[in-house]
Design a protein that fits this description.
This protein is mainly beta. It has no helices and 16 strands. The strands form five sheets. A four-stranded antiparallel β-sheet has the order 3-4-5-6, with no helix packed on it. A four-stranded mixed β-sheet has the order 11-16-15-13, with no helix packed on it.
């Protein structure tokens, strides 16, 4: 059985250890612990049956995910990246190899921010962002005009409605986003500044 303990340093339970059961189906487990930005524990461990597992506390209960099996998981070492995504190095006793595993979060879509309306011939700058923001790195962006960067500049010489498309790709897959841009002849409003006359 794998258990997690932490020492309380404040509040009514100050000075006591708090214990919770992580995995009742494991024995003689050796693990690696890391805390995320919210202070919640994440553990990579050998379950004692030759499988590497990853567990994390979501605030309500422990969630357990299998990572690899078949006499693996020894010497597991866990680290969390800037988005609290786990990265694990571990030993594979079958192949005698050191392995690396990470949790890949799919870029399911892309968001485009920028002007929704432009004058004919006017340039607009558009920024792409992958969704969710926790999508695993590295990320690559490809725009419908051929630009391959997070930022693209677009303009159209003729009045009409145009659609910008960007595709965000990461090691798990890709997601797409679109934005409709209205190109007009002139702005439908005018701005007048007050005329101030100074008398001498």
């Amino acid at each position: 059985m794998l258990r997690y303990a932490y020492y309380v340093t404040q509040g009514v339970e100050e000075g006591f250890w708090q214990l919770s059961t992580v995995d009742t189906a494991s024995y003689n487990a050796a693990g690696s612990l890391a805390l995320d930005t919210a202070g919640r524990p994440h553990i990579a461990y050998d379950d004692g049956y030759g499988a590497l597992k990853y567990a994390y506390d979501d605030g309500a209960a422990w969630q357990i995910q299998p990572v690899d099996d078949g006499d693996v998981g020894a010497c597991a070492s866990l680290a969390l990246d800037a988005y609290d995504q786990p990265h694990i190095s571990y030993y594979d006793d079958r192949s005698k190899d050191l392995k690396y595993a990470w949790l890949c979060t799919l870029a399911t879509a892309a968001k485009i921010t920028g002007p929704h309306a432009l004058l004919a011939g006017q340039e607009g700058t558009y920024q792409a962002e992958s969704l969710p923001i926790t999508a695993s790195l590295p990320l690559a962006f490809a725009w419908s005009d051929g630009t391959t960067a997070p930022v693209a500049t677009c303009s159209w010489p003729e009045v009409g409605t145009y659609t910008i498309t960007v595709t965000a790709t990461n090691p798990c897959g890709e997601g797409r986003g679109t934005l409709a841009v209205q190109v007009i002849e002139h702005w439908p409003f005018s701005m007048y500044l007050p005329l101030v006359v100074h008398k001498k």
